[in-house]
Amino acid sequence: MPDTVFLGRKAEIEELQALQERKSASLVVVQGRRRVGKSTLIEEFAKTQTFYEFIGLAPDKDMTAQMQRDEFARQLSEQFGLPKFIMQDWGDLFTLLYKQVNKGRVIILLDEISWMGSLDPTFLGKLKTAWDTQFKRNAKLMLILCGSVSSWIEKNIISSTLFLGRPALYLKLNELSLTESNQFWGKYYQ
Ligand SMILES: Nc1ncnc2c1ncn2[C@@H]1O[C@H](COP(=O)(O)OP(=O)(O)O)[C@@H](O)[C@H]1O
Ligand SMILES: [Mg+2]
Q: Rounded distance, CA 179 to CA 117, Å?
């Protein structure tokens, strides 16, 4: 396939840009079904900025919480050029990440967050603590929590008292409009 041209999502991009004008760190939640365009939207928004992305490993019957932590650690090492390491505690992983992003304008994406965190019962609590005591301190930081499993996001982030009042923006993505989809498919069938 040729490189896809980014289409639509103007309102969402504007909302994200407006948040960056604020003088405080922002927590953003993005949900929508698989393949609706969540990751693409965030990558497009962040493409001219300092951007780090972490993606949970797809579910498997043999998946363990440690495998998710190892994959996060691997992505950390890769993106920041750190030596390989193993950590048992999400708090340590978030602290290590924060040390790399405590200054300057930066966007961090935790993608497929339900895959990343659902096997470790401490994940959400550690994330909340990391936000409150670390990430939030960089006023130019944006942390985006994204996932395709809407029921998990609704229960554990949106209606959870743990994150009450913290997200500055919720985006629920729907399919691109018909005109936008036509432009999309038109590229392949003209
Ligand atoms: N706004 C867009 N314009 C053009 N192509 C898009 C757009 N959003 C998504 N796509 C295409 O649709 C596919 C699925 O998008 P993706 O961002 O991976 O979805 P999600 O992260 O929601 O699962 C990708 O191939 C992507 O290139
Ligand atoms: Mg995605």
A: 37
Task: Report how far Cα 58 is from the mean position of its chain's Cα atoms.
Answer: 15
Report whether 64 contacts 119 (CB < 8 A): yes
Give yes or no for a contact between 134 and 108, defined as CB atoms under 8 angstroms apart: no
pLDDT of 24 over the 90 cut:
yes
Point out the ligand nearest to the CA of residue 188.
1
- Total tally of structural domains belonging to the chain: 1
Query: Atom of ligand 1 at shortest distance to CA of 36?
Result: 22
DSSP code, position 2: P
- Residue 50, in any domain of the structure: yes
Output the domain CATH number for residue 44. Answer: 3.40.50.300
Any atom of ligand 1 within 6 Å of the Cβ of 152: no
Instruction: Assess whether the C-beta atom of 8 lies below 6 angstroms from ligand 1.
Output: yes
Confidence at 7, pLDDT banded by 50, 70, 90: confident
Reply yes or no on whether the pLDDT at 2 is more than 80. no
144 in contact with ligand 1, CB cutoff 6 A: no
